[in-house]
Design a protein that fits this description.
about 55% helix, 2 helices, alpha+beta, three-stranded antiparallel sheet
Length: about 140
Amino acid sequence: MIAAGAPTEAIASAGDRVVRRAFEQRPGQRPGHGNRYGRRHDRGSFVVVVAVVVVLAGLMSVGAARAGTAMLHRQQAQTAADAAALAGVEGGRVQADRLAAANGGQLVSFERSGGWDGFTVTVEVTRGGVSARARASSQP
């Protein structure tokens, strides 16, 4: 430690020793290892970086799984609605309800519009909390 009132030369030489000591290399030591600016003091940072990467990868996996499940439920609800609409053209509401149930859905609404030359059936089906609409026509 440098005493108060020490000559500036002593302060400068003490500072030089500290800097020199920080960059000195001991015999048998690889360059950049063992001094206060080297890798020895950075050892724990690798574990922290790996832990952050693992947590982020886990969160992204959970998000992707949820998005995939939501798309699957939407697709299944749409399949049930399409089948119910096509069945409704041929057999009316009873057939539409039966085919929606066969595909795991529940018929919520059934509308038939048109005249003697052709008609359109519009249905709404829910499956697993997801709602889907479909339309089918008796015309080609």
